[in-house]
């Protein structure tokens, strides 16, 4: 087991959130090169760090920003397909990620609101089954790899839909097993190692199927466009950004 995999398996998430960036940034210089690039910070590398528990993914974690494949894919998507960096937007960012925080906070076009149950990075702490904001409060909602942790993902999606303004939009990424159509979930499974085996991580309660996940987004009321990042970027750029299996961005809107 690699060091990163061991830390993410056995060290509490809130502890990692407070110190992981300092540790990785201190060794980032050893990965310098020109084979791969993190588009979030513009740093290039000879390789990136592996990441994952059941499925250790090579070249997944960029040491300067701590971005993973999903973060880099979403960043490029926001740049190329949306007005995110220019239009005035009130944004709700659930489970905010380190690689985005300082960059989003400095964007003068954003009224940037962050929320999480426990994260030290979040401005507001709450259970996302009951989001403490009024109906149609936000132009944009983003939540990446959150739904696989919650008890009732359908209720959480309904909350995302409720607080999104009419005409608003969002990005909601989850781990998807593209070998399975249906989602694998069973809340009676509480053994951490069995959860890791079935759902890829000990604190996951489900692993989404490639047909079922879009269905759940639509059932919540969202219009969905599944954006193919490989088609958008081309193979060379896709591989340079090391997007791995994060080929699809789930772009939702409230019509």
Give a short overview:
It contains 9 helices and 14 strands. With 255 residues, it is α/β, with parallel strands linked by helices.
The total strand number stands at: 14
Order of helices and strands: HHEEEEHEHEEEHEEEHEHEHHE
Alpha-carbon distance between the two ends: 46 Å
Gyration radius, to the nearest Å?
18 Å
What profile does the largest beta sheet have?
Answer: 7 strands, mixed
What would you call the structural class? alpha/beta
**What's the CATH architecture of the largest domain?**
3-Layer(aba) Sandwich
Q: Quickly name the level 1 CATH class of the largest domain.
A: Alpha Beta
Biggest β-sheet: strands ordered side by side in the sheet: 7-6-5-8-9-14-13
User: Which residues sit in consecutive blocks of at least 5 with pLDDT less than 50?
Assistant: none
In DSSP terms (H or I, runs of 4 or more residues), the helix count works out at 9
- Under CATH, the topology of the largest domain can be stated as Rossmann fold
Molecular shape: globular
Provide the CATH superfamily of the largest domain.
Answer: Vaccinia Virus protein VP39
Domain tally: 2
Helix amount? 25-40%
In percent, how much strand structure appears in the residues? 25-35%
